[in-house]
Amino acid sequence: MATVKIWLFKNLVWILTIVGISLFLIGHFNSDTSDSTLSFSDRFYKFLPSALKAVGVAVLSSGIFAAVLKSIQFSGIFQEELAKVIYSRNYLEKQDRKFLEDIWKLTSKVLYTQKFPRINEKIETIVLKHYFPSDHKYYFEDFRIFYNDIDIVNDGGIDYVTYEQVTSAKLVPIDERGKFPWINIFRYETDQSSYREVTKMTITNCSTREETNLIEEFSKTLSSGKFEKLLECDNEYEFWKAERRKFPLNIPSNELQDFGLSKVTNGMIISISYSENVKISFISKTVKEFHTLNKVDGKLTMEHRELLLPSQGFCLVLSKSRLE
User: Fold this and answer.
1) Angstrom distances, CA of residue 156 to CA of 194, 197, 251
2) Which of 52, 60, 62, 245 has minimal CB crowding within 10 Å?
3) What confidence score (pLDDT) does residue 43 get?
4) Count of beta carbons in the 10 Å neighbourhood of residue 60
5) Residue 224 CA from chain centroid, whole number
6) Other C-beta atoms lying within 10 Å of the C-beta of residue 126
7) For the purposes of burial, counting CB atoms within 10 Å of the CB of 303, is it exposed (0-12), middle (13-18) or buried (19 or more)?
8) Span of 11-15, 107-111, 247-251 with lowest mean pLDDT
């Protein structure tokens, strides 16, 4: 069946031309003047050649039109005009995500096949699925983290990190209708002397400025490490979270030392204040590094003005200072 379709497509011009000429000739040589005294059936058969003649002209015209299209389908004019339609914003906005992903993949192949022929498919997959995931429901703007009064104290022979943390950001939904889940995932390891006390947790509707207290809901999810809140897509939101924390210094997997974003983020600021017995090294986990806004004894402020992608962020390396 596929072979027949290919053959028909390749020979469509000739098929239409031959059929059109044949019908035209049959109609022409069998046509005759009409006679009003003839019965309906006789008049129908008299009319048939004229009809065949007209159909033949139509089919022949289709064949000529197909030939013209086939001859110019790869010409510069045809390609340019077609590209203007297919790649116009108005046309693309009306297509579904599957079509847009296919366009992205085709474009990626053109960009990367020559330079990276063996890994071009992996490149397009990681960019589309990981860095700009189409299934994400929102992104962050103006993400801010404040680490206040970081200190290292010894408790029962174990060094603990203590500090207060404030986190805030704007949530921007991608869809215009429906609802989206705001998901807050966190991880940390503790022992009997550790704690994580959430002192404030709010979310504010940017349109109405209505503030909702979420501290009770959030506190119930500390053991699971995941908080989820359903929000309306027709509004932007700002969240604010404040907490006090204490955890063992020698556990490298704690959240403070390794922070990664879960969503695309437009702009980020980290402000850190720490005691004199703490030494801090800041490491960027981004394509373009954070730049320093302020660095004095006991204070450090870092900023990233551009776009940050999922899993990007920063790392804080903490250690005790050797005081003279």
Assistant:
1) 12, 21, 16
2) 62
3) 47
4) 19
5) 28
6) 12
7) middle
8) 11-15
Calpha distance 91→113 (Å, rounded): 27
Tokens 């890994």 correspond to 119
Q: Which among 22, 50, 76 is the end of a domain?
A: 76
Question: Is the separation of the CB atoms in 189 and 222 below 8 Å?
Answer: no
pLDDT digits (tens, 9 = 90+) for 211-267: 999 988 887 887 777 888 999 998 999 999 999 998 888 765 555 678 889 899 999
Highest mean pLDDT among 59-73, 88-102, 188-202, 295-309: 295-309
Same domain for 181 and 57?
Answer: no
The answer to whether residue 313 scores a pLDDT higher than 70 is yes
- The pair of structure tokens assigned to 112 is 């990367």
Are β-strands 226-232 and 179-185 bridged in parallel, bridged antiparallel, or unpaired? Answer: antiparallel
Please provide the size of the chain in residues.
324
Q: In which residue are the tokens 């040589």 written?
A: 29
CA distance 219 to 198: 7
Kindly state whether residues 142 and 245 are assigned to the same domain: yes
Does the pLDDT of residue 205 top 90, yes or no? yes
User: Per-residue pLDDT for 165 more than 80?
Assistant: yes
Domain hosting 173: range is: 138-320
Amino acid making up residue 7: W
Give a yes or no: residue 114 inside a domain: no
Residues 30 and 166 reside in one and the same domain: no
Q: How many domains does the chain have?
A: 2
| SS3 category, 301 | strand
